[in-house]
Batch of 4 targets.
Target 1
Amino acid sequence: MNTGAVTMNTRAAALWQRVQHLPRETRDTLVLLAVIAFTTAPHVAHLPTWCTALAVAVLAWRAHIAINGGTLPGRWVMGALLLLVGALTFATERTLLGREAGVTMLVALLALKTLELRARRDALVVFFLGFFLLLTQFLYSQSLLTGLWMLLALWGLLSALVLAHMPVGRPSLAVAAGVAARATALGLPLMALLFALFPRIGPLWGLPQDAAGKTGLSGTLRLGAVAELATDDAIAFRVRFLGARPLDRQMYFRGPVLATTNGREWTRLAPTVPLSQRVRPELRTRGEALRYEVTLEPGRLNVLPLLEATPDRAGAAPQLEGWVFNQRADLQWQADRPLVERIRLEASAWVDFRHGPREAVAGLRDFIALPPQMHPRTRAWALALRDRPELQGADTLRLSAAVQQHIRSGGFTYTLEPGAYGDDPVDEFWLDRKLGFCEHFAAAYVVVMRTLGVPARIVTGYQGTDAAPQDGYWIVRQSNAHAWAEIWLPDEGWLRIDPTASVSPDRVQAGRSLAPPPGFMVGALSTIDPALAARLRGAWEALNNRWNQWVLNYSRSQQFDLMRALGVHTPSWQDLATLLVSLLCGAALIGAAWAWWDRHRQDPWQRLARRVQARLQRLGVVVQPHEPPRTRAARVRGQLGAAGEALAAQLEALDRLRYAESARARTALRHWWPAFAAAARRVPYGTPAAAAARAGSSR
């Protein structure tokens, strides 16, 4: 071990020794401040900078006062700080009401309240605010990591609360933490009971927006955007197939359909024809339906990335209580509000399908339009392609095949890092640099086909899944984000064409997206064991999935399923309430019976004090229950005289043990009672006090 490490260990040991020998009040205050800081830490991402700085400064100030024995600030200082907090909150949030303003005020007030820790009453207010702050974190996130963090914070607050209710001696932190852990364990069955049976409206955790607005598909497309999304390894959704799993090349999950462009960015269609003449969503399916279940993570849009093609028909369309889902003419499913919460639904899909009108209609003109001044070189290339002798009079499929052959043999490279493109990205990609991700190939293909007079559009979504399932679910990540194209054929309708398959067949055939560079930790683990990082990630994501399925998505239907499993054939709210009340009453009776049976288990000091009082009364020494050992020692000397000196010495020793180190006190107490009983037996039988006690008992 080097000199620096030895020095660090020495300093750490010295600091620990100093903490162990701090006065109890100082130690307990520092513990409470540390717990408050731990509870507040997850809120830092949501708090204004001034609030975080204020909380850190106030907690550090209070720790300095505790360690150095300083004076707490007066009322004028506290009043000024309170006014400052209110003014800053209003200036930041423009209100003193609502979630953000309320949490900001709560954090600031909790920190300021530590400057008023003068009595147990003040500490109880701090505990109350701390428990309330604990709950507010679930307004922002209810992930498994958040739950584990809050569980540790709860343990810390309960431990500090136990310390505040143990005024005698110097109980160790381990003792308080153990009592808090046992109290938490005793409350877990009741918590599980309330969780399983307490009536709820909609999903249990409907308010937080764990990941809304952070990642996911967008309603527009600029070249390079999907590549940026593909570097995100976060989970987009999970799929469980209720029958045979489709092939990788069949797993296209449809998202926003983009048909309008200014040459640089693609957006959803802005129709130029009356509603009665627009393209109809006719859907024709072949083969067997594929039943599947999908659990969607929160995202930015109200679009459901469902498997192609999920029709809008009875028994096939997605259904979820409290939500309204609609299918657009382009087969895109969307919800009545953004997906700011995790949802789970079932639907049916057909992987062999055609959709759209079979004959030309006015609305198809919208899918041929191109901005007049954009892509002149690519459009010239497309016209030259059509004029080739071998393609004279070729139908749409032959023209499409020729474009895809150009992609295969034209020196194109499929890459996550194509670099920035200029003012006309399609011309530069198609004819110059030839470096691109899926959206480059899809956009250039659509431009070429539109130049050839073929209605075409871009479809964004996801393609493929992880190579292996986790806990029965196939994982679709943001890195599976994809863009492909659709062209319209007479007598057929819309047909999917994926230009990326021409340059990177594995991307479509096996669902293998390009992998972004691994992070530091993953790279280090992969160096040690290439499969270790994947196994660890898989285990963690499987655990997260169970948390999502059985906790966050626990719903009324699952409550009724539980009732059916218990033998109630047609469960209702009345049955649920009856069962809950019955179980709570039973739990209350069991708790009361246990408390009656365990009533003798109290504070060991109080139990010992009663035993000492009974023994002294047999010797004729009258003492009161509330009197400390030193007062009882004085009474022994006053009533028994020299005969009770040894007994009085034992009582004084007991008084010293009350304020000794807890571990040493527990060890000494095991030897104290035998010594005290022996001293009591040595008191002469004929002392005046003993004689008076015998006389009183005979009367």
Target 2
Amino acid sequence: MTFKVVDLLALPDVREGDAVVLAGQESLERAIRWVGISERLDIAPFLKGGELLVMTGMELARHPRMQRRYVRDLAGVNVAGLMIRLGEDFPEVPRGMIAEAKAQGLPLIVLRRRIGAIHLTEQVHSLIIGEQFQLIEQAEMIARDFTRLVTGGGDLPLILERLAATVENPVVLEDPAHQIVEYAAHAASVDDVLQTWELHSREGHGRSSDGEVQLAPSSPECLWADIVVRGDLVGRLHVLAVLHPFNEIDHLTVDRAATAVALTLLGRSEARHLADHACSALIADVLGGRLQEPAEFYRRCSTCRVELDVKTLAVLVVIPHGLASRAARQGLEEHERQAVRASILSDVREAVRDSGCAGLCGLDGDRVVAIVGVDPRRDLEQMLDEIGTKAVSRVARRYDDLRPRAGVSGQTSPHSLLKALRNAYEAADFHAASGEGPLVTHFDSLGPSHLLLRLAEGPELARYVESELGPLLEHDVRGKSPLLPTLRAFIECGGRKSEAARRLSIERRSVYHRLARLEQTMGRDLSDEETCHRLWLALSALDLLRRRRPDDALEYLHGPRKGGSQ
């Protein structure tokens, strides 16, 4: 307990001094930090607050004009109170001083009988030091208690329950977005608080730069502390004064509990980081062709706590297209970019887990790779669609300036994992650069298009498009009536003019007229089957080249494909 002015009045020496409170009765619960004896009238600048001053009033009697100012100065530095022993030099307190003390809410106490002032200060200091020592002992006991919880493997719910039981009030742990992560209600019903939690946590809660426990003047009052791990704010711990008012030991308890929570989260982060590194290293070995034997692959998976040996295997790759641009636009440091990768990796891992499958998930540059194991009794393609859609949707919700796309291989085996990884990359690349197309692309559905993807990494594909479609593209740029849509409809309808007319919503004779103009412009015979096949390939290549944006060349065309990097 904190030693207060009211406790001072209960001491035998003070009672024997016939103490009378002349002003500040409403402030008798003030804590006394120290007791000082001084007659100086300019003492205020040397005080820190919380002191109880004891004097005889000798100097006050000599300087009546300083009396009210003296009281104001003491109140201005938040002293606990002023005690004056009346005597021949100062037989009574002037009314002006009493009025000023009342106005300032400063406890003003007079002793009408002589007491041993030095003995009083020694007695009070002994009590204060004793209480401080007790606080230190309690704090150490609490710290040891929370340390045992952390080192014994205690999780967050257990730590919060212990904190709630110690402070006898409900406790809430929130994330940086003010969403509740865990809470312990103790003996209270916190339904009303939880329903309006975001409003509560945003009112009166700033950012504690020094990490100290803060008191929020909310309703109810709230003791809170930031949870910082590796310099990043990862959450905030709140204790709500629903059942009991706060005392000094509650501040110490919240401080020790916040440290325990941070250590627990740091331990999780370290464990997750090591696990992610192990998974990424295994995937890098697969990409580098350094893992040939199935037994070795399954053994390495087991060390990552992923069991794939009785599963149907396939590879899923998620490309967070636009991450390089985001990093450049926001000036992200490498560790900040790595944090984004880790979040995307977490989204993919959760999508695999939520679908009831096993997955070895890791990073290859900015890409997330998952070697997925599906129960042989389930439909492989359907499960991969489900996982890919969940993963891409989560990433898109988390980062609205990215264009995530997923690519999946067909069924594979440990012997063919490298090929499956490359196939999944190509499938993910096919629609990665545009906002169009499916969220998940299967390599088996690409057909000849996967050959175009490989050609797109050099100038050959663009040259082919120019040789086949150059005159038509130039015509459409210069003319007012583009012919490319007509050619596309004609080719995609297999050369059937009536069907092309319906697709274009024009009359059949208009299609004949446009086709004649196309043949004249391109110098080609559209009735020739080989010509139509070449034009279909050129149109597909044109679509692929147009989908790719300037930053794609940096992010994907020259991205890692072998040996994986994290």
Target 3
Amino acid sequence: MIALTAFLASCAPKETTLTLIETTDTHGRYDEFANDVHVIKQMKAELGDRLILLDNGDDMQGTPFQYCSNQDAEHPNLVSEVLNFFPYDVACVGNHDIEAGRKVFDRVYAETTVPVLAANVIDETTGEPYFTPYIVLEREGYKIAVLGLLTPYVVTWVPDRLRPGLRFDNLEEAAAKWVKIIQEKEHPDLMIGLFHSGYEPQAQNLPEDHPLGRENAVKWVAENVPGFDLIFFGHDHRAKAEKLTNPNGEPVYVLNSGCRGQGLAKAEVTLKKSQKPQISVELMPTEGDEKDEAFLAMLQPYIDRAEAYQNKEVAELPVSISSDDIFKGPCLWVDEIHRCQLETVEAEGVNADISMAAPLGGGKTLEAGMLKVKDFFTWYPFENSLAVMALTGKEVKDFLEYAYEMKNPIYNFDCAAGIRYEVTDKNPMGERITILSMADGTPFDMEKTYNVVMNSYRSMGGGNHLINGIGWAQEEIKDHVVWQSDRDLRSLFIDWATKKGVLDTEPLNCWKIK
């Protein structure tokens, strides 16, 4: 018996320490990511297979050269090139990767040599996960399970046409289901979550009892679903390294590296058979001048192709504009978007009485002069499309009341064109907005139904203007959609500006703050 025990002990894997590194939400900022690459390659050279590299999605949107790569079927996509560069050990899907459209993300992930995870994205034809739900990595005799999950709120931001045939299930329920499956089937020594979901609900999230669950669910899962040792997350762009406790009183470590190549999230895990993993976590800033030359060389052709595209001249901007002017009242930054939206749908033969729009980033400026394509990525950074919705006059007012209440963050601060109204800033929500008339002076009717043009993010419930502001249920929003564009709004904006030649010098002055 003693001999058998000694034999079994000699067969058990030796104690080992692994290093796990996460990147997330790069949003195509791979020129800035070269600092991270330099650090990762140094660690790879030192640690070899004891380094596990994870990416947590939202890579396919955010820069002109990534946008160009998504449209370019002649060359490998930049995202697949980056994932294959080290290569990564595993990646998770982000909501902005889905936003690129199924034609794009299917091609990108087919080009990768890296397992791509998202257990709660379901193929409606088969009822099975569309992506790989989880993988098991083996290192020095130990099994490391990685479960990928994506916030299901994709369905509130990305139109059906970009994600046909896919269903996005509740993340919390999927976490509980799959961690149990993995434990029973795989018996891992280390259980990792790779979640493209934020830490905890923010004020603008939907109610926690919504069928989709929480948009940002990581803290809830860590504290309520036993089985995880470590959860890497992203989506909310908030760097974090924290220790939580699950229902069994066991530690769960949660990590988010932040966004746009600003740093790495690092976990060191010591594994020893028949003992709980010993884990330490930290955030690693990667600022500095040292960049990986091989990575930059790989990146350069993509930058060159994008430069040719983004430096094309579009239209003259006679006066400088700033997104922050919206806080003072009407401003050209938003009113040119209004003009574009109203005139674009009119050209499509669709009537729109009112336009809703917000600046999509604070602290942005465009100087007077000839605008190039790249300036429109500053002006309109997302790949939203355009939609027309049917709202009653009262719903228009409720929409604007909510937008003024939620003016921080700035991308929720919608204002309207096509009507004239006043905002009494000192009044409480619900009593701030007074709609005086339509823009042409004709009466505005609270009972009448108006066609209202807005971006697709807002028309699907993004920002909760339709849900918390008006009071619609998520499932009824689609019943109010009158029309949707087939192209992204930035492309429509560029086309509109090109035809115009010279942009306006004065805002529409449809509203004022009293």
Target 4
Amino acid sequence: MKKKYLIPYTLTFCVIALLLTASNDEFYFKVNKSFEIFGAVFKEISANYVDDIDPQDLMDDGIEGMLKNLDPYTVFIDEKDGESIDIMTDGAYVGVGITVGTRDSMLTIVEVQDGYSASKQGVRIGDRIFKVDSVEVLHSESDELRKYTKGKIGSKLDMWLFREGTRDTIKVALKREEIKIKNVPYFGMVNDSIGYIKLERFTRNSKDEVVKAFQDLKKKNKLKGLVFDLRDNPGGLLESAVSITELFVPMGSKIVSIKGRNKRDERIYYSDTNPLDTSLPIALLINSMSASASEIVAGALQDLDRAIIIGERSFGKGLVQTVIDLPYNTSIKITTSRYYTPSGRCIQRFEFHNKYKSNIEHTDSVFHTKNGRHLVESNGIEPDTIVKETRISDFVGYLRKKDLFFKFANFYSAKKDLNSKNLIVDNKVLETFYSYLKNECGDIEFPFIKQIIDLDSTAKKEKVGKKVLKKIEEVKILMEKEEYNPVKSHSEEITKILDKELNRRIYTQNEFIKYGLKDDEDLKVAIPLINRNSYNKILALSETKNNVH
């Protein structure tokens, strides 16, 4: 009787196997067919198009065309960009210790790393790089500088700089060194009992730096709470996020799960190491630029009721990328899966266009933390306590867009001795700033005055009544008589920004982070919430749970 039933089961299995094989055969047939057609088109255009075409450029355009309809995180990495992956992964590179950006179409130094060649030779934020050795680079893109600064450790290079307030270029002799990027640029105590750790990225070394910082704080102080700062942290390695979360949650805790197109891409990460601490109150700071690995840590600590999340809603990058090596030292970073917090939340912001799959709509499903607190799936991690960013006025936004705070700081630091660490942005500095805007930036537009002028122009075009035009003219006359000074009107807002920009040129990186904490709004909110009673109430903790070590 058993043999009788075995035949249909065997036939069914064979049919399924054949269907799967046929399906795979069809897929790979399409792959091979598409590859042959693409190769033929590429060959014909390269050889026969009316104008000369560099085959490399044509290939780059073809790859860009393939990827443009996918998510923004799936990218091709050519040979010259491969080093950026190594830097992100290892947290180290060979260079002279500077970060550059483009300001007014010129290559400008925006950060100088402590303790390396550039810092020792007096290179400053705001210096513009005219030449490296014999090559003029002033109007180069920022990523092009790497080919001149990288090289053999110990080898030397000459750099010529333009500096505000000097007529001639300044020549500095620099030495190439291994630059170790600090994942934890600062840690310390914010008061007698609460420690602070700032983590800027997730590389292979991040866990070790966090462990060292935490152990140092605990050894030297009677630690009753910790502020863990992940603001502006763009993320990094998934494994690093998991290993750092493991430091503060019980062994066996679910940290994150990833699910992809294929079953082989699915995985659940659990804590499998002894933690450093599972009971010390933690306030974790995030903002709109906390992304990826930062959100894995924040989501896990929130779901496990292990930390109070404070600040702004995070960026919302819930996708996982895999880097795959390709021929000729190139690679491709492909989005292979989505990650989910321990409670099951997916926090990806599906704002990009993907022609191959409809964007997944977020649900209003209610999720629960370990202690039963309600959470709703959202675009990013929503803090337990939201600290809204102060709205920037139109005038200040205009100044930022034009990079005028950065430029003024260069101008001011060239005129004044900024060696003193007691710089105060007072009325005299504000007056100097206003004079700078008027004298050095003749094309500056004060938004309110511009709006009045635009209103007058529009009203005339629309042929409104004479009474309305007369009123608009009266307002213009009143503004001229008042001698409107927007710097004075927005002095509180401008003072904070100038204080930050000027003091960046006085303090080392480590000192500047510490200096900035004195007026940190998120920190002011976090400190009282670490108080045991407030902490217990927010996280629905019982005294019994809290006393477990």
